[in-house]
Design a protein that fits this description.
The protein is α/β, with parallel strands linked by helices and 208 residues long. The chain contains five helices and nine strands; from the N terminus they run E-E-E-H-E-E-H-H-H-E-H-E-E-E.
């Protein structure tokens, strides 16, 4: 298993964010996490990413933390940088060679529809394209585990379909996906979080 969450409990001050959450995913498997606001979805992703420390239980990943890509619900973008500059910054941060960065950036700019907008400062873009910049910046480096928190909220239907296709290709190539959102995704096996507890039995699902 590349990801094992065992009886995970996370508290922040007096607030309990997660209680007794367990799941296991192997390479190329995908799982959606749904639930209302405050259910603990973001806390679960942040715990898997290593950004929240378990109060009890454990999170075990079979790769280095640098191989975990995390798209936050409110991603940090630099308003005066454009899409190309974001990809160059994050690609350099994760040690991509110039050749690898050019190849990966060209691919992502095309797949996300950012090509015609790649030189525009992020602050001038519509929310949907800003989200695409955040997605491309998340995916610019190789990742074995992809964590996505509410990635579709500002996207048009066409953009959503494009992102789903990109996700499907990644899982086929062996990337493990954990995706959090308020809606239940028909094409993705999904479990529900309520008040920090899983209400469904997690399923092991291989990307098709």
């Amino acid at each position: 298993m590349i990801l094992q969450v065992h009886n995970l409990t996370v508290r922040s001050g007096e607030q309990t964010l997660l209680t007794g959450v367990s799941m296991a995913l192997d390479r190329g498997e995908a799982l959606g996490i749904t639930g209302p606001p405050g259910a603990g979805k973001s806390a679960l992703l942040r715990a898997v990413a290593g950004l929240l420390r378990p109060t009890a239980g454990s999170v075990e990943v079979g790769v280095g933390r640098e191989r975990i890509a995390y798209l936050a619900q409110e991603p940090d973008l630099y308003p005066d940088l454009n899409a190309e500059q974001h990809l160059a910054f994050y690609g350099g941060l994760f040690g991509l060679s110039d050749q690898a960065l050019r190849r990966r950036s060209g691919y992502l700019l095309e797949r996300t529809g950012l090509g015609p907008h790649k030189a525009k400062p992020v602050r001038t873009l519509r929310p949907s394209f800003r989200q695409m910049v955040a997605l491309a910046a998340t995916l610019v480096r190789p990742a074995d585990i992809l964590l996505m928190d509410e990635p579709f909220a500002p996207l048009s239907e066409g953009m959503r379909l494009g992102v789903w296709e990109l996700i499907r290709e990644m899982t086929k190539s062996g990337t493990t996906l954990l995706l959090a959102g308020r809606e239940r995704y028909e094409i993705l096996p999904t479990v529900r979080l309520e008040n920090g507890r899983l209400r469904d039995e997690p399923q092991r699902v291989v990307g098709e």
